[in-house]
Amino acid sequence: MVRFNYRKVVPLAYDAMIRMQKYIDESGIDEQTMELIKIRASQINHCAFCLDMH
Predict the structure, then answer these.
(1) Which H or E run contains 28?
(2) Is the pLDDT of residue 46 over 70?
(3) What pLDDT, on a 0 to 100 scale, did the predictor assign at position 49?
(4) Closest among 10, 52, 43 to 18, alpha carbons compared
(5) Res 1: pLDDT
(6) Where's the Carboxymuconolactone decarboxylase-like domain (predicted)?
(7) How far apart are CA 40 and CA 46, in angstroms?
(8) Is the CB of residue 43 less than 8 Å from the CB of residue 51?
């Protein structure tokens, strides 16, 4: 199975995700808590790609 390449297929969405990550990095939320939030969001969105990433 080939992975979906967000950067090539939807570059504007990819850029928005990168900007959002930079904002989150500056938010003061500790790294472990942020990973748990990302995992839960991936579960809610039924995104196997994201779950695999986190």
Answers:
(1) none
(2) yes
(3) 79
(4) 10
(5) 66
(6) 11-54
(7) 10
(8) yes
